[in-house]
Design brief:
The complex is a heterodimer of chains A (113) and B (112). Chain A is an all-beta fold and 113 residues long. Chain A is built from no helices and eleven strands. The relative contact order of chain A is 0.33. The chains are: A mainly beta (113), B mainly beta (112). Chains A and B meet through strand 5 and strand 10 of A and strand 5 and strand 10 of B.
Chain lengths: 113, 112
Amino acid sequence: KAGVTQTPRYLIKTRGQQVTLSCSPISGHRSVSWYQQTPGQGLQFLFEYFSETQRNKGNFPGRFSGRQFSNSRSEMNVSTLELGDSALYLCASSLTGPEDTQYFGPGTRLTVL
Amino acid sequence: QKEVEQNSGPLSVPEGAIASLNCTYSDRGSQSFFWYRQYSGKSPELIMFIYSNGDKEDGRFTAQLNKASQYVSLLIRDSQPSDSATYLCAVIRNSGNTPLVFGKGTRLSVIA
């Protein structure tokens, strides 16, 4: 069974730009969660989607948004990028939600200059 | 108080020893607890979960939960150099909009 895939793997942007990251979950998984990982803050929850509906959202500004498609693939968007948005963005898929076993993708390393 | 706290380490243990990783959490209503392992440059992978007070064993790994003390630990027996990684404790919250909260992780180094 193929694992969670994320594209792109690396991204360099400048302040003020916007970015879209993509996540394809494991086949059959309907829950996709997004996390931001930085050395200072660790792994922080961004949001979770299940069957195209956002069920939970973490404490991030409205510049961070996401969506999920009918095939469970998910995208997250960050608008008006700031230097502090530089991080590893991880998505994780599971059958039912974060309370279930989550499988993480390899992540997208975003650098904002 | 942080929601999930872990000693950042590094925790250094000799090969073959028992490594003990600890985690405390603040939400008394938390029900589910997870240990993830993250190798440098890689994404986290789940190694253990525990829901009930007491011990849960899986191979060389034992998770221990004490809800009264709001404490969860992970023991790694016969530690191997391949166990060198950052171990993340994660807790399912009983309330709030963040369902799963991670600690910042403990870096374990097993010395051959």
